[in-house]
Amino acid sequence: MNRHGLNNDTVPAALIGKGAENDYVYVNCFEEEVINPEETAKFVSDRHFGVGSDGLILIKPSQCADFEMAMYNADGSRGEMCGNGIRCVAKYVYDYGLTDQTEITVETLAGIKYLKLSLKNGKVSQVQVDMGAPCLVPAEIPAAVGTDQAVDVPLEVEGKVYHITAVSMGNPHCVLFLQEDVRDLDLEAIGPAFENHPCFPRRINTEFVNVIDDHTLRMRVWERGSGETLACGTGACAAAVAAVLNGKTLNETNVLLTGGQLKIAWEGKDAPVYMTGPAVTVFEGEIELPEYIQKK
Asked: Which residues are part of the catalytic machinery?
């Protein structure tokens, strides 16, 4: 998907980018218009009939920041924030000449995020994102747990009791620390039960975590609206925050995901969470959208 124009309004200009193997289709909405983003997200995300991605991200002008990121999950639902996706937004806008600054702001549904770009051979290779302070108030996550903070609280899921910690990083997360190797879990079987649990009125992203040592976590994630993905930036942040709250790690944590590694730092209380990780361009191309998607 090249970035230079549409053919009869049927081909969105876009790029495939990935951060820690979390992959999205990106569209430059300074030049193009996506009429029906919900259906476009579902179409392009299909790995058999579309492009294949974890969702769709639109890069748009903003009235309050340098850029706006509008993120859609693979099922077409709007997501508040995506940590891996926002790093790739930074790579796109710098590498494709929409900015020459190495510190930028990006508007999201979870607020304005502050990004620092690291360059290699004139292109963005790593991005640090100020993700803001985590929200730990159950009603605001939202998580109906009946406590002041959802830290290490019991939750029954399909007849089994798990101890969870709920955190919002602008989007809701449920973190479980498990003794069994998370690499052996059948997430297709258990993930939907957490995502659609009545305790979470807006559904939930769920992180299944092993503690390796006091500065390392291993994590798999079931994302709301997308299923299992190889990585989740906000999920890695939530897992690191939950690990600190439960006394399992120090304030700087390496989170090992199926698709790569992220460095998360959080000093606790009202401090912001800092996430650092890679951003990679996979390819550019064009795809023709079906007629039903082109209609408002």
From this structure: 82, 232
Phi-psi region of 156 (alpha: psi -120 to 50; beta: other; left: phi over 0): beta
The string of DSSP letters for 65-129 reads SSEEEEEEETTSPEES--HHHHHHHHHHHHHTTS---SEEEEEETTEEEEEEEEEETTEEEEEEE
pTM of whole model > 0.70? yes
Q: What is the pLDDT of residues 5-29, one digit of tens each?
A: 233 344 344 555 555 557 889 999 9
**Separation of alpha carbons 102 and 135, rounded Å:** 28
Cα separation, 64 vs 69, whole angstroms:
12
Contact 82, 24 (CB under 8 A): yes
Residues 252-272 pLDDT 10s: 999 999 888 999 999 998 999
Q: What is the mean pLDDT of the chain?
A: 90
Residue 287, pLDDT > 80, answer no
Distance CA 99, CA 13 (A): 18
CA angle in degrees (0–180, nearest 5) for 40-44-47: 150
Count of C-beta atoms within a 10 Å radius of residue 102: 14
CB atoms within 10 A of CB 244: 20
